[in-house]
Amino acid sequence: MLTLVLIGLLGGLITAVSPCILPVLPVVFLAGGPGTEPPPPPGGARNDTAQNGTTRNSTTQNGTAQDGPGAGGGAGARGAGGVLLGDAPPVAPPKPPRNRRPYAVVAGLVISFGFFTLLGVTIISALGLPQDVLRYIGLSLLVLIGLGLIFPPLERLLEKPFARIPQRQVNKEGSAFVLGLGLGLLYVPCAGPVLAAITVAGARGEINASIVVLTLSFAVGTAVPLLVFALAGRRVAERVAAFRTRARTLRIAAGALMILLALALAFDATTALQRALPDYTSAAQRKVEDNDTARQQLSGLSDHTNSALSRCEDGVDELRSCGTAPPLAGIAKWLNTPDGRPVTLASLRGKVVLIDFWTYSCVNCRRSLPHIEAWDRAYRDKGLVTIGVHSPEFAFEKDPGNVTDQARELGVTYPVALDNDLDTWNNYRNRFWPAKYLIDAQGTVRHFSFGEGRYARTEGLIRTLLKQADPAVQLPPATGRANDKLTADRTPETYLSTLRIRGYTGTPGLVQDKATAYAFPTAGLPLDRLALSGTWTAAYEQFTAGPDARLAFTYRAKNANLVLAGEGTVTVLVDGKETRTLQVHGTPTLYRLTDDSSARRATLELRFTPGLQAFAFTFG
Predict the structure, then answer these.
(1) Residue 64 has pLDDT above 60, yes or no
(2) Which of 294, 317, 414, 490 has the fewest CB atoms within 10 Å, counting from its CB?
């Protein structure tokens, strides 16, 4: 649990200084500035200061005015009853209340983030509300607080719900707390692996102690840099004379800025700024959230039914006892079984089972399939049962016809379970494509390995389990498909998705779900960068080509591949020379763009027929 807390804290710290939250930083900074305008001072005794600096107390004794110290010739004027009036010590002005607005706005942000990230999807689904309702609420609150800064009566109205709280000064920070609530709703989309694990659990309603701990630690980690920034704003407001003498003007400016930010977020005008900045936290995020320890922790945030899987560790060279294998649940359809009948793990007692999580458009999965198919052929008669769990990454991969065609084309003959709702994926605490799980003859998970590689090690463990199940079994020689060497510096898989794309460099920034004219940069493309030209419609799952649509990508690999769908052609140019024309037909399928004998650096230019859809690049 301590490891999970540390991962959440560090993940939150990194997210809070990443480019994704830059648009809200000015609001957080200004939130620490001038608070609610103070009410006018109550009536009562006056303390007038003369021009020469002498304090004058005015009173009347028997109708006679006594002015100044020593009036009446004594040590001081005495009124009725002998009360000394002239020599009363000056009354110190009351100490101004402490400005707690920075704490209020950050507290609101943390509470809003934690609550709605875990329960937001459940609530809006139960109420039948649109998926974007929380974002619209956040934008509305931002506008409302902005108007409150401009119009003080509105701000006092916002603070009324907090007026009954007895703690001194808490009710004065009500609008700052409401502002934090709104910012928390707008802050949720800033996502990394930790936040992805939290949101998946929240979306599936699988909230347990580990998820709550991870959420709280992530929120606290996020709050620390933001609180520092808000406190810096308060410090500036207290120290800089302009903030003190022009507080009213600055409040109006802050309110206008918040309203402008809300409009910019509503129309996605901040995206161009975020994409123009380098992802300066990506390296730190990978080290913290995507290392072996973090993967192990984040891959297993589920209920007690599969908690024993935490005893296993990704890719170790030994067999461990990691609990009873979770069931193959929520399967929409079975392929390659007699009459499509389901396969249950209980019926496979006495057999060694290899479960491979894959999806057909993933080139990493495709590269691993020859190894799995070879193991299936070599050891099927020796007690090994191979099951492919097809867990879709895209919506089109849920279509049974598409999966059937692709499995046949890829030579997959062992049973395939269509895990369209990711129930089995979740049962096994999986977060990776591909992923291999080994189950012994007693139905216990003994090993798992995420991603490509380590094939010789996995085959060796399969052979060990087969020997344990039947000491008399005569195993054939190892398949020989043991080349674990992967190209370390090849270009990574790249999704053509407005939310998941990496390396986009072009003008303008990507526009969601709207046909937009783009242009290549004039300076060329660095390695692992892509750009668009002509008209494109960018969406969450794919980019759709319009008139004069072109795409450029500088990559390093032996081969480049692209998932395409529709009817038309794609002309492929490599380093400016036309090399081939692809005939695209039908549902999304992986097409080979280049195929070289060794890895090299090259620049692709693809020219598309309007209407074609492009989904993801993969490299080998």
Answers:
(1) no
(2) 317
Average pLDDT, integer, range 297-323: 67
Q: Which residues contact 197 (CB under 8 A, 6 or more apart)?
A: 211, 214, 298, 301, 431
Q: Name which of 551, 581, 552 is nearest 568 in CA terms.
A: 581
- Torsion angle of alpha carbons 184, 187, 189, 194, nearest 10°? -90
- Partnered with residue 417 across adjacent β-strands are 334, 389
Q: What distance in Å separates the CA atoms of residue 316 and residue 32, rounded to the nearest whole number?
A: 50
Torsions phi, psi of 178, nearest 5? -60, -40
Compute CA distances 530 → 13, 353, 613, whole Å.
29, 41, 16
pLDDT tens-digit series, residues 247-280: 677 778 777 877 887 787 666 565 545 544 555 5
The whole-angstrom separation of Cα 564 and Cα 556 is 21
Rg for the chain, CA atoms, rounded: 33
554, 533 contact by CB (below 8 A)? no
Q: What angle is formed at CA 32 by the lines to CA 31 and CA 36, rounded to 5 degrees?
A: 75
Q: How far apart are CA 211 and CA 206, in angstroms?
A: 8
Q: What percent of the chain has pLDDT over 70?
A: 66
Say which residue, 56 or 264, is predicted with more confidence.
Answer: 264
- Tell me which of 300 and 251 has the higher pLDDT: 251
Bridge partners of 353, per DSSP, are 385, 439
**Cα 100 to chain centroid, rounded:** 29
Structure tokens at 154: 């509105």
Q: Residue count of the chain, please give it.
A: 620
Q: How far apart are CA 535 and CA 504, in angstroms?
A: 16
CA angle 497, 501, 505 (to 5 degrees): 120
* CA atoms of 77 and 80, how far apart (whole Å): 10
Q: Between the CA of residue 254 and those of 28, 35, 150, 176, 378, what are the distances in Å?
A: 10, 11, 8, 13, 70
Say how far apart CA 64 and CA 41 lie, in whole Å: 29
Interatomic CA distance for residues 56 and 70, integer angstroms: 11
Residue 181, pLDDT score: 75
| Sequence-distant (≥ 6) Cβ neighbours of residue 205 within 8 angstroms | 122
**Pairing assessment for the beta strands 435-439 and 416-418 based on DSSP bridges:** unpaired
Distance CA 155, CA 275 (A): 35
Nearest alpha carbon to residue 134 among 195, 185, 202: 185
Could you tell me if 85 and 66 are in contact, meaning their C-beta atoms sit under 8 angstroms apart? yes
Taking residue 595's Cβ as centre, other Cβ atoms within 10 Å add up to 12
The reply to whether the predicted model has a pTM over 0.85 is: no
Q: Which two tokens stand for residue 227?
A: 């609180």
Pick the closest to residue 417 from 397, 390, 384 (CA basis).
Answer: 390
Q: Are 542 and 577 in contact (CB under 8 A)?
A: no
Q: Could you tell me how far CA 314 lies from the centroid of its own chain?
A: 23
